[in-house]
């Protein structure tokens, strides 16, 4: 079978029959061998029977959520290609051919673009059209090397095996972002075709919740991009702190009527420590995610980890610790000059703050080197080849056992009784 159209469904009695009939009619018109699968997520309005009457196959998905329903529907699909779309009659299921043609030509994922195809009046809330979708799609393109302009279009087609191999896991609305992000990170062929969006045919409110689901999309994009979540903000913060701290260590800095002194130096020290900690968290996340297979391996991070070995990290941390201790000794000497009496903060803190900062950074460096070394310990993982080899060996042993007769007690030899002459 070439194509399966998967529609997630939760109480769509008003529109599901129309959507099924449109998709089946499109396949008949263009000679596409296919089916429609309704991934029902617990409807109580009779949607299931209406879908069956229209010619669809219904699969029941117990786990609630948009992503869970789609994952279940994709697994149940029999087609080589899958096109997914909402069962609310907002997407045009009579115009599936462009998706199929792109898939036939080698695409792994074909996204619809509603902004290129056309959004009818009232089809999309203004908040989504002018803020939510453009902003989240921009962040997705910024964080990941993707050219997709409409990250959240619900009508999209893909090769079933390619998407299943991605191991998609999110159960909510962020499933839409996860598919694009993981496909991009894995280097799949991702394309885009124009599609239209019409006002849905339901009289009840949609399941989508703007702010809640928008935050879930944004959270997913951040968590899958340690570079933008940790590395870049941390590096910027640390650089600003170092520049400000270096300037203020030797005296106050005046910009016009503004005077920056000890208070700013303490703030700069905090910026350095926080920024350095964020950079370390970025490295930790990258190494861990690559080892566990959540993210593809980053060659730059791998080279950095290979170069910055545990021993080098310990040496660097020790050097920083010695510098911090030297600064502390210098501050004690300064105190001795004052006969261990009251100090002038503007003088003493210029020694104490940088020294304390160096000590904090030194121990963070040592602990980080140890932790990254632990993360880098590779576990022996059983590959599919190993599993197949083990199964083959077990089968061969079983055949050998069946073909070898069971050894039992030896049968007694026949005794020939010689006749004794009378």
UniProtKB/TrEMBL annotation:
The keyword Transmembrane is assigned to this record: yes
Residue ranges constituting the Glycosyltransferase 2-like domain according to the UniProt record: 4-165
TM segment ranges: 228-255, 267-289, 310-335, 355-377
SUPFAM superfamilies: Nucleotide-diphospho-sugar transferases
Low-salt glycan biosynthesis hexosyltransferase Agl6 C-terminal transmembrane region domain mapped to chain residues: 283-376
Signal peptide (UniProt feature, chain positions): none
Location of region: Disordered: 396-422
UniProt keyword terms in alphabetical order: Membrane, Transmembrane, Transmembrane helix
Domain of life: Bacteria
Family membership noted in the UniProt record: Belongs to the glycosyltransferase 2 family.
Descriptive protein name: Glycosyltransferase family 2 protein
Organism whose genome encodes this protein: Sphaerisporangium corydalis
């Amino acid at each position: 079978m070439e194509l399966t159209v998967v529609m997630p469904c939760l109480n769509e009695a008003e529109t599901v029959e129309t959507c099924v009939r449109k998709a089946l009619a499109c396949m008949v018109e263009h000679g596409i061998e296919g089916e429609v699968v309704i991934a029902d997520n617990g409807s109580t309005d009779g949607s299931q029977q209406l879908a069956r009457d229209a010619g669809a196959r219904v699969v029941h998905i117990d786990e609630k959520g948009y992503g869970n329903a789609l994952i279940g529907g994709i697994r149940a699909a029999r087609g080589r290609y899958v096109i997914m779309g909402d069962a609310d009659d907002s997407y045009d299921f009579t115009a599936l051919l462009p998706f199929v043609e792109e898939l036939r030509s080698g695409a792994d994922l074909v996204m619809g673009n509603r902004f290129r195809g056309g959004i009818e009046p009232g089809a999309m809330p203004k908040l989504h059209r002018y803020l939510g979708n453009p902003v989240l799609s921009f962040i997705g393109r910024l964080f990941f090397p993707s050219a997709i302009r409409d990250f959240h279009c619900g009508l999209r087609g893909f090769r079933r095996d390619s998407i299943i191999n991605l191991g998609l896991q999110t159960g909510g609305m962020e499933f839409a972002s996860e598919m694009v992000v993981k496909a991009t990170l894995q280097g799949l062929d991702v394309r885009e075709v124009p599609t239209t969006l019409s006002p849905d045919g339901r009289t009840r409110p949609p399941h989508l919740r703007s702010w809640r689901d928008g935050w879930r999309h944004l959270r997913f994009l951040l968590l899958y991009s340690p570079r933008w979540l940790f590395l870049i903000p941390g590096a910027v913060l640390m650089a600003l702190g170092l520049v400000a701290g270096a300037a203020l260590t030797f005296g106050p800095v005046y910009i016009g009527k503004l005077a920056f002194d000890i208070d700013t130096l303490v703030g700069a020290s905090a910026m350095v420590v926080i920024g350095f900690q964020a950079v370390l968290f970025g490295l930790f996340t990258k190494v861990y995610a690559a080892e566990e297979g959540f993210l593809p391996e980053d060659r730059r991070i791998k080279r950095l980890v290979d170069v910055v070995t545990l021993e080098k990290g310990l040496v660097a941390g020790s050097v920083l610790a010695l510098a911090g201790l030297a600064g502390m000794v210098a501050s004690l000497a300064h105190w001795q000059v004052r006969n261990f009496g009251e100090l002038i903060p503007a003088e003493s803190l210029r020694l104490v703050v940088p020294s304390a900062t160096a000590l904090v950074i030194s121990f963070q460096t040592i602990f980080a080197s140890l932790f990254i070394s632990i993360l880098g310990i590779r576990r022996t993982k059983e590959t599919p080849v190993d599993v197949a080899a083990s199964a083959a060996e077990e089968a061969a042993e079983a055949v050998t056992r069946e073909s070898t007769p069971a050894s039992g007690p030896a049968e007694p030899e026949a005794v020939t009784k010689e006749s004794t002459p009378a």
